[in-house]
Amino acid sequence: MTTHNDDVDWDRWPVADYLRENYREVHPSDAAVIAHHSAFYRRFPPGAVARSVEFGAGPNFYPLILASGASRRIDAVEAGASNVAYLQDQICHRLDASWLPFHALCRRLNPDVPATLAGALAHVNVVHADVRSLPPGSYELASMHFVAEGATEDFAEFADFCRTFVRAVEPGGHLVAAFMENMPTHRIGPASRWPGCPVGPATVTEVFTPLTRDLDVTHIDTDPTLPDYGDSGMVLLTGVAGAA
């Protein structure tokens, strides 16, 4: 049977396993995403974006660091209780030292990123909510990383998540995203299994073309330093939301 988003207990997302497998060091794929996104964010003067959203933030801080170079406020919207707890603990109490190299790379590629990791994350507001509940047109900029294709096994639901992502910004609002390419249902840690919807540059382009203008979709190859989840790399996107 096909697993849909609402079939999954997202409160039990294995934060420690996920971070250990993916974010305890800057992998080549991270560096490639950060370089791509830094070029996007350098288009904006510091503080030019009043309000941006990280659409399904998870426990990944580098998209939030990247957004801090342009955004005065960043809403990190996340449904899973374990991810929310990690985000809040990091921002309010302590920061894992493993995020410091990510901050250093983000700042090297975009000097508008605040000089300290704590300064960058001072822009972040953690919101415990389902991204599907976001009022349309709430933001000037939306960012999404490994969410729509990792929330479901159903392509129609993947496309619905992408449409909701675009609708989160006002017409003319800016979009930046990364997707795992051809990600199947996969395991994180010793036992837990999580959905995946295999997509590639062509399918991402197909979904976003009617919704956007100035769409740019690129690909980076699979990263052998990461666990083999069955993916074949990443798909990166920038664009501008079309009229509602």
TrEMBL record:
List, alphabetically, the Gene3D superfamilies matched: Vaccinia Virus protein VP39 (3.40.50.150)
Q: Which GO terms describe its molecular function?
A: methyltransferase activity
Show the InterPro entries listed in the entry.
NNMT_TEMT_trans, SAM-dependent_MTases_sf
GO biological processes: methylation
Give the coiled coil ranges: none
Q: What are the record keywords, sorted? A: Methyltransferase, S-adenosyl-L-methionine, Transferase
Its name, as the record gives it, is: Class I SAM-dependent methyltransferase
What is the taxonomic lineage of the source species? Bacteria, Bacillati, Actinomycetota, Actinomycetes, Kitasatosporales
